[in-house]
Amino acid sequence: MTLFPIVSLLLSTVFEHLTWTARDVAGVVLILLGNLVMVANPALLRRLTGRPAPDTARPALRADNGSLADNGSLRTGPRAPAPPRSATQVR
Asked: For a designed S-S bond to 66, which of 12, 41, 79, 85 qualifies (C-beta 3.0 to 4.6 A apart)?
């Protein structure tokens, strides 16, 4: 959470007798709203904004890496061999 600007304004108010303006108050409100968005539950934010939930289906991983095939099932076949390394790559 970002609260350093608010702490700075409060310290300036106490020790330097800062007079708050509408810009200062608006900045504090924006900071607090930004912090609220960062820590709030995403489902609550979707309800407040009226936006639908994103599609939760996992995209299938590439079939050639041995994890998931295009249809989402676990691939059990052999993996393709790694390409040979050149002499300059080996150290």
From this structure: 79
